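FAQ: What does the model actually see?

It sees only this:
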Amino acid sequence: MQVIVDEGIGETSPLWQQFQAWLGPRSVEIMWLKALYPAIPDVEILDKLLTPETVLLTQDRMLHNRALRQGMRSLTLNAAGQLTRKPLPLDARRLRAQAPSVVKTLKSTYQHDPHPIALQLSAGRPPKILKAQRTRRRRIRSYFGAVDNLAKVSWTIGARPSQGHLLCGYVVHISGKQGVKGLRASEAYGLDPATAPDPAHALVHALCEVFHLHLEHVQHEFFIIPRETFALAQQMTGPLPMSSPPLYRVAQQLIHALGHKQFTPCIKGRFYDQMQRKCNQLTTSASNEIATLDFRDIVQRLEH
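And it is asked to produce this:
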Protein backbone atom coordinates (compact mmCIF):
# COMPACT_ATOMS: atom_id res chain seq x y z
CA MET A 1 0.00 0.00 0.00
CA GLN A 2 1.23 3.48 -0.88
CA VAL A 3 0.17 6.43 1.26
CA ILE A 4 0.11 9.83 -0.44
CA VAL A 5 0.53 12.58 2.17
CA ASP A 6 -0.86 15.94 1.10
CA GLU A 7 1.02 19.18 1.72
CA GLY A 8 0.44 20.81 5.09
CA ILE A 9 0.70 17.52 6.97
CA GLY A 10 3.77 17.00 9.12
CA GLU A 11 4.87 14.21 11.45
CA THR A 12 3.59 16.18 14.44
CA SER A 13 0.13 16.91 12.99
CA PRO A 14 -2.90 15.22 14.64
CA LEU A 15 -3.91 13.63 11.33
CA TRP A 16 -0.52 11.96 10.89
CA GLN A 17 -0.46 10.76 14.49
CA GLN A 18 -3.94 9.25 14.24
CA PHE A 19 -3.02 7.64 10.94
CA GLN A 20 0.05 6.06 12.55
CA ALA A 21 -2.12 4.61 15.32
CA TRP A 22 -4.58 3.27 12.73
CA LEU A 23 -1.76 1.82 10.63
CA GLY A 24 -0.17 -0.09 13.51
CA PRO A 25 2.67 -2.48 12.55
CA ARG A 26 1.74 -2.61 8.86
CA SER A 27 4.45 -1.54 6.44
CA VAL A 28 3.59 1.03 3.78
CA GLU A 29 5.34 3.25 1.27
CA ILE A 30 5.01 6.96 2.10
CA MET A 31 4.90 9.62 -0.63
CA TRP A 32 5.32 13.14 0.80
CA LEU A 33 3.91 15.49 -1.83
CA LYS A 34 5.66 18.50 -0.32
CA ALA A 35 9.02 16.88 -1.08
CA LEU A 36 8.24 15.17 -4.40
CA TYR A 37 5.77 17.52 -6.11
CA PRO A 38 5.74 20.90 -4.32
CA ALA A 39 2.49 22.89 -4.72
CA ILE A 40 0.87 20.18 -6.86
CA PRO A 41 -2.76 21.11 -7.69
CA ASP A 42 -5.60 18.88 -6.49
CA VAL A 43 -6.56 18.04 -10.07
CA GLU A 44 -3.14 16.47 -10.70
CA ILE A 45 -3.34 14.40 -7.51
CA LEU A 46 -6.73 13.09 -8.58
CA ASP A 47 -5.74 12.57 -12.20
CA LYS A 48 -2.25 11.14 -11.95
CA LEU A 49 -1.43 9.86 -8.45
CA LEU A 50 -4.45 8.10 -6.99
CA THR A 51 -4.97 4.44 -7.83
CA PRO A 52 -6.86 1.54 -6.17
CA GLU A 53 -3.59 0.72 -4.37
CA THR A 54 -3.10 4.17 -2.83
CA VAL A 55 -4.49 5.90 0.26
CA LEU A 56 -4.66 9.67 0.33
CA LEU A 57 -4.01 11.45 3.61
CA THR A 58 -5.31 15.02 3.43
CA GLN A 59 -6.68 17.86 5.55
CA ASP A 60 -8.52 19.28 2.53
CA ARG A 61 -12.18 18.31 2.81
CA MET A 62 -12.91 19.06 -0.83
CA LEU A 63 -9.99 16.95 -2.03
CA HIS A 64 -10.99 14.15 0.37
CA ASN A 65 -14.57 14.09 -0.92
CA ARG A 66 -13.48 14.22 -4.55
CA ALA A 67 -11.11 11.30 -4.05
CA LEU A 68 -13.92 9.23 -2.52
CA ARG A 69 -16.31 10.22 -5.31
CA GLN A 70 -13.66 8.99 -7.75
CA GLY A 71 -13.72 5.59 -6.06
CA MET A 72 -10.35 6.01 -4.33
CA ARG A 73 -9.40 5.71 -0.67
CA SER A 74 -8.83 8.80 1.45
CA LEU A 75 -8.40 9.54 5.14
CA THR A 76 -8.95 12.82 6.97
CA LEU A 77 -10.23 14.12 10.31
CA ASN A 78 -13.92 14.79 10.87
CA ALA A 79 -15.41 17.65 12.91
CA ALA A 80 -14.77 15.67 16.10
CA GLY A 81 -11.09 15.29 15.24
CA GLN A 82 -11.42 11.58 14.49
CA LEU A 83 -9.91 9.71 11.57
CA THR A 84 -12.52 8.92 8.93
CA ARG A 85 -12.88 7.39 5.48
CA LYS A 86 -16.37 8.80 4.98
CA PRO A 87 -17.34 11.90 2.96
CA LEU A 88 -17.54 15.12 4.97
CA PRO A 89 -20.29 17.77 4.74
CA LEU A 90 -19.39 20.80 2.65
CA ASP A 91 -20.94 24.18 1.96
CA ALA A 92 -23.21 23.75 -1.07
CA ARG A 93 -21.48 26.70 -2.73
CA ARG A 94 -18.24 24.71 -2.87
CA LEU A 95 -19.78 21.64 -4.53
CA ARG A 96 -18.88 22.60 -8.10
CA ALA A 97 -17.38 20.48 -10.84
CA GLN A 98 -13.64 19.88 -10.73
CA ALA A 99 -11.67 21.46 -13.56
CA PRO A 100 -9.90 18.77 -15.64
CA SER A 101 -6.17 18.29 -15.93
CA VAL A 102 -4.75 19.86 -19.09
CA VAL A 103 -1.21 18.42 -18.90
CA LYS A 104 -0.18 14.88 -19.72
CA THR A 105 2.68 14.32 -17.29
CA LEU A 106 3.64 15.27 -13.75
CA LYS A 107 6.01 18.17 -13.15
CA SER A 108 8.86 18.04 -10.65
CA THR A 109 7.45 21.17 -9.03
CA TYR A 110 4.33 23.30 -9.37
CA GLN A 111 5.68 26.22 -7.41
CA HIS A 112 5.62 29.57 -9.15
CA ASP A 113 8.63 31.74 -8.46
CA PRO A 114 7.26 35.27 -8.07
CA HIS A 115 8.39 37.78 -10.63
CA PRO A 116 10.96 40.27 -9.24
CA ILE A 117 8.36 43.02 -9.69
CA ALA A 118 5.90 41.09 -7.52
CA LEU A 119 8.53 40.76 -4.82
CA GLN A 120 9.32 44.48 -4.97
CA LEU A 121 5.65 45.44 -4.78
CA SER A 122 4.99 43.15 -1.80
CA ALA A 123 8.16 43.72 0.24
CA GLY A 124 7.34 44.96 3.71
CA ARG A 125 3.59 45.16 3.09
CA PRO A 126 1.26 44.52 6.07
CA PRO A 127 0.36 40.84 6.66
CA LYS A 128 -3.34 41.60 6.09
CA ILE A 129 -2.65 42.82 2.55
CA LEU A 130 -0.35 39.89 1.75
CA LYS A 131 -2.98 37.46 3.02
CA ALA A 132 -5.63 39.04 0.80
CA GLN A 133 -3.32 38.63 -2.20
CA ARG A 134 -2.72 34.95 -1.39
CA THR A 135 -6.47 34.41 -1.03
CA ARG A 136 -7.13 35.84 -4.51
CA ARG A 137 -4.40 33.65 -6.01
CA ARG A 138 -5.70 30.50 -4.27
CA ARG A 139 -9.25 31.19 -5.46
CA ILE A 140 -8.08 31.36 -9.07
CA ARG A 141 -5.96 28.20 -8.83
CA SER A 142 -8.74 26.30 -7.08
CA TYR A 143 -11.37 27.31 -9.62
CA PHE A 144 -9.35 26.49 -12.72
CA GLY A 145 -7.57 23.48 -11.23
CA ALA A 146 -4.13 24.74 -12.23
CA VAL A 147 -2.48 27.76 -13.81
CA ASP A 148 -2.00 25.66 -16.97
CA ASN A 149 -5.79 25.83 -17.49
CA LEU A 150 -5.86 29.64 -17.73
CA ALA A 151 -6.54 30.86 -21.26
CA LYS A 152 -6.80 34.65 -21.03
CA VAL A 153 -7.22 37.42 -18.47
CA SER A 154 -9.50 40.30 -19.51
CA TRP A 155 -9.48 43.64 -17.69
CA THR A 156 -12.02 46.44 -17.74
CA ILE A 157 -10.29 49.63 -16.60
CA GLY A 158 -12.19 52.77 -15.66
CA ALA A 159 -11.58 56.09 -13.93
CA ARG A 160 -13.59 59.06 -12.71
CA PRO A 161 -12.55 62.46 -11.25
CA SER A 162 -13.38 62.64 -7.54
CA GLN A 163 -12.81 65.72 -5.32
CA GLY A 164 -9.64 66.80 -7.09
CA HIS A 165 -8.24 63.27 -7.43
CA LEU A 166 -8.85 60.30 -9.74
CA LEU A 167 -10.87 57.26 -8.74
CA CYS A 168 -9.37 54.22 -10.50
CA GLY A 169 -11.11 50.89 -10.93
CA TYR A 170 -10.69 47.55 -12.62
CA VAL A 171 -12.61 44.30 -12.97
CA VAL A 172 -10.82 41.07 -13.89
CA HIS A 173 -12.41 38.20 -15.81
CA ILE A 174 -10.44 35.00 -16.47
CA SER A 175 -11.34 32.39 -19.07
CA GLY A 176 -10.18 28.79 -18.89
CA LYS A 177 -9.04 26.41 -21.61
CA GLN A 178 -11.51 23.65 -20.80
CA GLY A 179 -13.90 22.27 -18.21
CA VAL A 180 -14.90 25.49 -16.42
CA LYS A 181 -16.78 28.70 -17.12
CA GLY A 182 -15.12 32.08 -16.87
CA LEU A 183 -14.45 33.60 -13.47
CA ARG A 184 -14.91 37.17 -12.24
CA ALA A 185 -11.65 36.95 -10.34
CA SER A 186 -10.94 40.36 -8.86
CA GLU A 187 -12.32 43.89 -8.61
CA ALA A 188 -10.85 46.96 -6.92
CA TYR A 189 -11.30 50.72 -6.72
CA GLY A 190 -8.99 53.29 -5.18
CA LEU A 191 -7.50 56.74 -5.36
CA ASP A 192 -4.34 58.47 -4.28
CA PRO A 193 -5.26 61.45 -2.06
CA ALA A 194 -1.72 62.86 -2.28
CA THR A 195 -1.44 63.31 -6.06
CA ALA A 196 -3.27 65.17 -8.79
CA PRO A 197 -5.25 63.20 -11.38
CA ASP A 198 -3.13 61.49 -14.02
CA PRO A 199 -4.16 59.03 -16.77
CA ALA A 200 -1.35 56.72 -15.64
CA HIS A 201 -3.07 56.07 -12.31
CA ALA A 202 -5.75 53.74 -13.66
CA LEU A 203 -3.23 51.87 -15.80
CA VAL A 204 -0.66 51.34 -13.03
CA HIS A 205 -3.38 50.36 -10.55
CA ALA A 206 -4.42 47.46 -12.80
CA LEU A 207 -0.92 46.47 -13.92
CA CYS A 208 0.25 46.05 -10.32
CA GLU A 209 -2.56 43.56 -9.73
CA VAL A 210 -1.25 41.41 -12.59
CA PHE A 211 1.90 40.84 -10.57
CA HIS A 212 0.10 40.50 -7.24
CA LEU A 213 -1.86 37.63 -8.82
CA HIS A 214 1.35 36.09 -10.26
CA LEU A 215 -0.22 36.04 -13.73
CA GLU A 216 2.38 37.96 -15.70
CA HIS A 217 3.02 34.93 -17.97
CA VAL A 218 -0.64 34.58 -19.06
CA GLN A 219 -2.24 36.38 -22.01
CA HIS A 220 -3.86 39.70 -20.97
CA GLU A 221 -6.25 42.02 -22.76
CA PHE A 222 -6.93 45.42 -21.24
CA PHE A 223 -10.19 47.11 -22.22
CA ILE A 224 -9.60 50.74 -21.27
CA ILE A 225 -12.43 53.25 -20.90
CA PRO A 226 -10.61 56.59 -20.32
CA ARG A 227 -9.33 57.78 -23.71
CA GLU A 228 -6.28 59.44 -22.16
CA THR A 229 -5.31 56.21 -20.39
CA PHE A 230 -5.70 54.18 -23.58
CA ALA A 231 -3.55 56.66 -25.50
CA LEU A 232 -0.92 56.49 -22.78
CA ALA A 233 -0.89 52.67 -22.85
CA GLN A 234 -0.25 52.78 -26.60
CA GLN A 235 2.54 55.29 -26.06
CA MET A 236 4.20 52.93 -23.58
CA THR A 237 4.90 50.37 -26.30
CA GLY A 238 7.55 52.69 -27.77
CA PRO A 239 10.39 54.72 -26.25
CA LEU A 240 9.41 57.40 -23.75
CA PRO A 241 10.85 60.92 -23.78
CA MET A 242 13.60 61.46 -21.23
CA SER A 243 11.40 64.07 -19.55
CA SER A 244 8.61 61.57 -18.83
CA PRO A 245 7.37 61.49 -15.21
CA PRO A 246 8.68 58.62 -13.04
CA LEU A 247 5.20 57.04 -12.87
CA TYR A 248 5.17 56.78 -16.68
CA ARG A 249 8.50 54.99 -16.66
CA VAL A 250 7.15 52.59 -14.04
CA ALA A 251 4.03 51.98 -16.15
CA GLN A 252 6.23 51.15 -19.11
CA GLN A 253 8.32 48.80 -16.96
CA LEU A 254 5.18 46.94 -15.88
CA ILE A 255 3.92 46.68 -19.47
CA HIS A 256 7.23 45.43 -20.86
CA ALA A 257 7.37 42.74 -18.16
CA LEU A 258 4.18 41.15 -19.57
CA GLY A 259 4.81 38.58 -22.25
CA HIS A 260 1.40 38.71 -23.96
CA LYS A 261 -0.75 41.84 -23.75
CA GLN A 262 -3.18 43.81 -25.83
CA PHE A 263 -4.76 47.22 -25.23
CA THR A 264 -8.22 47.88 -26.59
CA PRO A 265 -10.42 50.96 -26.21
CA CYS A 266 -13.67 50.25 -24.39
CA ILE A 267 -16.43 52.59 -25.62
CA LYS A 268 -19.65 50.59 -25.16
CA GLY A 269 -21.11 47.29 -24.06
CA ARG A 270 -22.11 45.54 -20.86
CA PHE A 271 -18.74 45.83 -19.12
CA TYR A 272 -18.43 49.48 -20.11
CA ASP A 273 -21.86 50.22 -18.61
CA GLN A 274 -21.12 48.29 -15.42
CA MET A 275 -17.84 50.12 -14.83
CA GLN A 276 -19.36 53.52 -15.52
CA ARG A 277 -22.24 52.88 -13.12
CA LYS A 278 -19.85 51.65 -10.42
CA CYS A 279 -17.53 54.66 -10.73
CA ASN A 280 -20.51 57.01 -10.67
CA GLN A 281 -21.86 55.31 -7.54
CA LEU A 282 -18.53 55.50 -5.73
CA THR A 283 -17.97 59.17 -6.55
CA THR A 284 -21.47 60.33 -5.58
CA SER A 285 -22.02 58.46 -2.32
CA ALA A 286 -19.97 57.41 0.70
CA SER A 287 -18.39 53.97 0.39
CA ASN A 288 -15.77 51.84 2.11
CA GLU A 289 -14.90 50.13 -1.20
CA ILE A 290 -12.40 52.84 -2.14
CA ALA A 291 -8.87 51.88 -1.14
CA THR A 292 -6.11 54.41 -0.54
CA LEU A 293 -3.45 54.15 -3.24
CA ASP A 294 0.12 55.43 -3.00
CA PHE A 295 1.72 55.85 -6.42
CA ARG A 296 4.80 57.50 -4.95
CA ASP A 297 5.46 54.32 -2.99
CA ILE A 298 5.04 52.24 -6.17
CA VAL A 299 7.55 54.44 -7.98
CA GLN A 300 10.05 54.13 -5.13
CA ARG A 301 9.69 50.35 -5.15
CA LEU A 302 10.08 49.87 -8.90
CA GLU A 303 12.19 52.67 -10.30
CA HIS A 304 15.85 51.68 -10.53
